[in-house]
User: Fold these one by one.
Assistant:
Number 1:
Amino acid sequence: MIAYILWIAVMVLTAPLFLSLIKMIKMWLLFKKPLSPLQGYRDFSKLLSKEVLISQEASAITHIAPYMVLAPLVVVLFLLPPPSAKSFFISFTDAFTLTGLVALSSFFLMLLGLDSASSFGGIGSSREAFISALVEPAMILVIFALSLMAKNLGVAQATINLAHHFPIEHLASFAFAGIAFFILLIAENGRIPVDNPETHLELTMVHEAMILDISGWYLALVESAAAIKFMIFASLFVSFFMPFGMDAPFLVALLIFLLKVAFVAILVALIEVNTAKLRLFKVPNLLGLAIIFAFLSLISYYILGA
Amino acid sequence: MTNFFIGMFLSTLITAMLTTRLYRLIAWYAVNSLFLALAAMSEAVRIQDEAMLISALLTLVLKSALIPYLLKHFAVKFQAERNITPSIKVQYLIILIPAILVFTFYLIDPIIAGAAKNYISLAIASLFLSLVLMIEHRNVFAKVIGFLSLENALFLLAMTATEGMPMLIELGIFVDLLMAVVILNLLFKKEASHV
Amino acid sequence: MFEALFLPPLAILLLSFLDIAKIKRFLPIVSAAIFIPVLFLFASDHILYYHDLIAVDKLAKFVLLVSSVVSIGVTLALESLEKHVAIDAKDYKRFYRFFALFWIGMIISVAANSMGIFWVGLELATLSTVYMIKTNKSAFAHHEAWNYMIVGTIAIALILFGIILIYAAAKPAIGEEAMLFSALGAHIHQIRNSYLFEIGFAFVAVGSFVKMGFFPMNLWLANIERAAYYPVAALFSGLLESAIMVGFFRFAHIAKKLNESHLIGFTYIYALLTLFIVAFLIYRAKDFMRLFSLSGVEHMVLIAIFWVSGGYFAALLHFAAHAFLKPALFISTGVLESKGKYHIAGALRGYKGVKGTLFFILVGFFMLAIIGLPPSPIFFSEIFGFGAMVEMAKASHHLLLMFGAIAFMLLLLAVIFYKFVEVYQSMKYEGSEEPKEVYASEMSALALFAIALLALLVSFDYIEHIV
């Protein structure tokens, strides 16, 4: 029980660290003076001391939405596959629950963007809807394919099965699922080929456009929601595609888990440095690829057994 | 391991189909051939066939290095149009590609079970996908890439379905000749259009 | 003696490097020399050569004889090519060179016993055709040469794909010999994986059908023949399509032993679709080249369908007759179109002198022979062929369906018949009289084809015993 609480706490607390890590690696690779990995925490505390300003056209939604953006993601955190096989609580959630909760969070984010009645918010919300409509089918398919390969529909149990017996004969389907899921990770967290989290240029921004009009505590909530979302996807990725080290004692397992997440963060940073942002209407090409690979993974497992 | 390499072969082919840039298409073709060569090698090691190992090495050298390099060279030399948006829209491709895959997977279903069954269906699937790749582009270079991928599909089938053919090396060399002529033809065409 | 078959083409290949203008009148004699090895092959009973890779059986002998006549005719007609179209000396040489290569590929694929060798010959013939098309310098020809390259190689690749599948299906039962047509035919019932074999056959058939311009690739062949110089079209219809057809004959013969009803269903559906489209395309044709090449597609359909229905005699007779008639017609388009592409009206008027009169009589004869007016061999082959189809329909489980298909085919053939008669009347009785030049070389080619057709009429007995 304590281990479980500790794990959740570590996930929440380290979430901003990894986003700062990505930023740091990128700046370092671009020969800039890298910022501190603790920048995420500094931003958070700075936002806490700021006043909450709300547009006068905004309705009650703006007051509810930041909490509702964060809440489903926190719920998902509790249901994620644990870092250790001997965990206290092994959840039984399946692909639909996870995707649904993540979608609920983005739904309120979109409402938040629309509510301030600024033109940017509308643009951002429509783009977000466009992207997440393409992400969801792929995500459900991927997680289903993986659960089938691991012989359990519950996500958490599936990863533990994978750790105990890796299905080497299904390596091809596994690789397809991996590619698809990595594309989803990038798209859903607004990383570079899909969205650039660092600019505020109206032509390109998606996530930033929706939260342009809020400030203070609400902005802090939404920013931490983004960090937690990355954490969720990264931890799903590592527990499905790097299922090792789960039998170690809890603290060691937790450490290995964090190292794996850091590895994913580095991977994302490398991709961000090496690619240019896609035009918005090229994004379906990338996400279409994810859908095709997810489907391919499912059918090649199901029909060919490969 | 062959499984994995053939899976990656298929996935690079699908990625190539959604590409909109010429040089990237050429690069994907090179990666595609690389995985084909790796699959051939692991299969050759499995059934201990030296002839197949040789043709795998040939594939590695010719198709994943030399031919992409030459194509890139020609594309630069003749200033080929680099933006090659497929004429089939991506939303249709998302439906078309899985449909082709499902079709071929079920097409092979009645075959008497064997290790090669899956490989045959994947080879037929990649044949059809290469045909779509050829159809969806108007650019000559992209069409040639489609043709070369079709040839890769042929090699995949010959390698996996028959566990090494005696005639095959010979045939493979002739196919390579065919490819060389395709590329030369490209050259001629440009030459003539410059005059 | 088999090797001697390659001597005449090789001689042409070598001679083409010399001054072509001086020696070109001797080249028909060189190519006529191919009769010597062909006749020797007819006399000998030796079938298999080179570890069974080559088999000169009765079918191959017959097709080799037919193709030799066509090649000699084309060589004769090539002599006057420069008088009808603008071609410079370098391209003229190139044309002869690639014609020789084409001929070699064609001989290899006809005489092959191994599926791989068959494919290699076909590929050689295909590639050399690209260069023959490219001797025409126009932009249209350039485009079409590309088109041919792409579509032709796709078709060839499909054939190879099918061959590999067939080999994969047969190898567990037959072993390494599964590449040989003879071994496949002999041991076909030992194949356990007959489904795989049928998929392979379907790929081979679709590849050959694409190459011959069947549904859905009906127009590409017509465009290519329109774009290239007319001897290319003659070679295409006389030689390349023959080589592919022989391959189809051999594969279909094996597939028929395995599962006849699948083969018949497949070919009939393909044939009906093709005929349906081609009949109306012919009805709309406005120039000779397209008219003849679309009619070539129609005849290929008929040959294929006669063969699978069991009318081997009819198929072979039709095959030979078409191989003589179509090159003759294509060669005569060089004269017929000398006043412009779309001059159908009056094309058969205005010929003077002995050569002119003979030309006019022969072309009229060919025009009416190709649609099957008696006593053309096509008349007999269609009678026998449809007879075989009716026999097959009576033995099948779907009597009404088969009769419906046959009746529909006859209806479509009637459309084509009507168009040809109309064109003939327009050529003969409409338009104004314009003087046209006829040369001795193409006249001799036409005369050769006419004699070959007459010879066909008296050799029914022999053709009947080929299969």
Number 2:
Amino acid sequence: MKTFRACLILSAAIAAACSGADDGDKKDGAFALPTAFPSTYEPLPSESLLITNATIIDGTGEASDADSLLIVDGVLSDIGTDLDADDATVLDVNGRYVTPGIIDIHSHLGNYPSPGVDAHNDGNEVTSPITSEVDAEHGVWPQDPGFDEALQGGVTTLHILPGSANLFGGRGVTLRNAPARTVQGMKFPDAPETLKMACGENPKRVYGNRGGPGSRMGNVAGYRNNWVRAADYKQKIEDGDEPTRDLQLETLAGVLNGDILVHMHCYRADEMAIIIDLAKEFDYTVSTFHHAVEAYKIADLLAENDICSAMWADWYGFKMESYDGILENVPFVHAAGACAMIHSDDDKNIQRLNQEVAKAWANGNRAGLDISRDVAWTWLSTNPAKALGILDQTGTLEEGKRADIVIWSHDPFSVRARPDQVYMDGALMFDRENGLKPVSDFRLGTFATLGEARP
Amino acid sequence: MMRSLVLTAVLSVAATPALAQSLFLDDANFVLDSGETQIVDIRITDGRIADMQADLQVPSGVTTISGAWVSPGLFAPYSTLGIVDIGGESSTNDTQAETELFSAAIRAADSFNPREVHIANARRRGVTHAAVVPQPDGDVIFGGIGMIAKLDNEDDSILSETAFMHVALGEAGASRAGGSRGAAIQQLRSALDDARRSYLQHVEGDVFQRRDARAFRAVLSGDMPLMISASRASDLLRIIRIKEDVPALDIIVVGAEEAHLVADALAENDIKVIVDPLENLPDSFDSLNASLDNILVLEDAGVEYAISGLSSRSVVKAGALAQHAGNAVGQGLPYDAAMRAVTTVPAGWFGIDLGRRAVGEAATMVVWDGDPLEVTSAPTAIFIDGEAVPMVSRMTALRDRYNPANADDRPHKYR
């Protein structure tokens, strides 16, 4: 019962979660990651719905023969042709494209919200290069108007990360793009915990004159020193030593224990290769390299080590480590057999990730690859879901999954395409045709929302 | 030839030559200067249109492309091309300077490097011309004198060295001027006064030393457009107020996220705007009423506008210009209007002649493999003033070295 004793020092607020950790199949002395701030997300009410006459991209990477989707109790209960409606409402979409909801694995909505005033800088805890004790969810403002615009762009799930100032930036949080009053009301239930780490220029620039790291050498030393501390902390718990709870080391121990997925900001190919060996040294895995502007240079290495890359279509050149960006990064990484995906890192870009994938897809094929539209879609929802550990719940249109669905006005790989309807867990969240759209408190009373009522 | 409208161009020859001086375009979608499109066959010889008719005989021995699109060269009305290699490295960044010696007199042209790699990277995406905009620094709102370049990497690519004056109002200007919008606008009013002044010594102006005041005289007379960064509707009205005092001013507002709230006033006072059709968030208290419909309202009100990628200019440079225009079309702007807003409209503002795309003329034009405003399209050939320009850039060199379709198995540095 070592785990239980370790829990005695926890605050009352998380005691319930902690006792829950004890009744699993963890053996005595095993490290168990405490959880807190549980999700209170509830899907909005929905009716049974049969979508017919659809052109379906299902996210599996294979061309779909289906033209109909049946949604019951917020879940995709059937996908195929000639489905029986039973008592479901029938929605004939007249041949329009129907896709999974888009998943953005790299967003700062809520922790760098609009308006971007000083008081809203909640994305980087720039007080120390090691802040694995902080959690992005404690800085997310659910009233960021960016969430509403991202929904209009078809984004139903998103991963909010701390910024990249620190070597260990803190925990990330996976959110449903739900119009909630609290961040708990947005948290994706039971999504795996994540940790943001950062390579390269940012940590050494921010801390170069503040005690370091001041170089890429210092960055790596900083990772290693703290993995040593974390391994020691974890060992003490496993030995029944009951160390004083240390939030910083607890997160790192959670990574070493396989409970927390590492998402690492890294641009340069050679740096990613160093990180791959670092992870081997301390026996953990990297889920995803973020930005990964040079991933195309080591795509084989990424495939070999089963590490995903989350990339832009054409951002480059704003700092030295982004100078070698090419328009074919995503398709080249995919072509090597590695897990590739798009990401936004931006409140405008997140609204049209379908266009970003369209650019990457077309440029890849122009460079001689032969990538289908169905495969390219996996960069928008399937691979982000995989990298976040939620592919069993969303990311594709397959039976038993959450009914996260976008109905498009045009081919989603056209600049003209707009989501007409967005469903989350089977509930209609956005409807261009009737004006249904969540509105942030912040936008109330502005002329943009007063419409006809404005003076 | 084939009369069906083929949206995606099909090359009958395996690859487009690096310098396609001569081409035959079968059933091309020819985008007129008006932005409207007609379908014609086009024979291009030595970089010029040799023949253009509804139905031409396919010549032999010439690269033939079916269903291509031909547009004017795209004109980026707001860029930093040629004056910054890497934004985050100040040693490479000539966009702004903090100095008490000069402000308005500083010329982007003096910093411009026609071989900077971003120029070819942007050109490869169809941008043939760009306005290069210097930014204010220190405690002044004056960025200095902007220029216009053609993007051909040639030493003579600067077309206008003194094309416009850039100043910042709104939050950006206020923070430079000490903290308030009032202080920023007072700098602009003082500059207009100083431009009228006869200096006996170089330091006697209200905000300008002698050289800056001289540079501003062309603004005062209306010979040089005054480009003002501003967003909030109330700022736009104050700009109109200044123009009432100095009617000769030729004003172009950049940003203008709230222009839709005062569109009629902008039209009445001939204020031009550069807008980004993607701006729809209250990024700051400057743009609480930003809306995707901004450009639609401007079109209805008769405001003259150009389109720019303001939201992504530091990370994509000018390369994604067509996508920004395409999004305006997706929002409901007529196609021809969006096309003009990235070609003839900004070119006209700065007196740049993109040339007549007619038989025998040395024109600037881009041949695309699909609709130029579509995200899946890309140029296959580009002509600037009747000369084919290279379709390669640093980006394509990196692409070719690491292309998984490349069978070369030598170490990458030898490829």
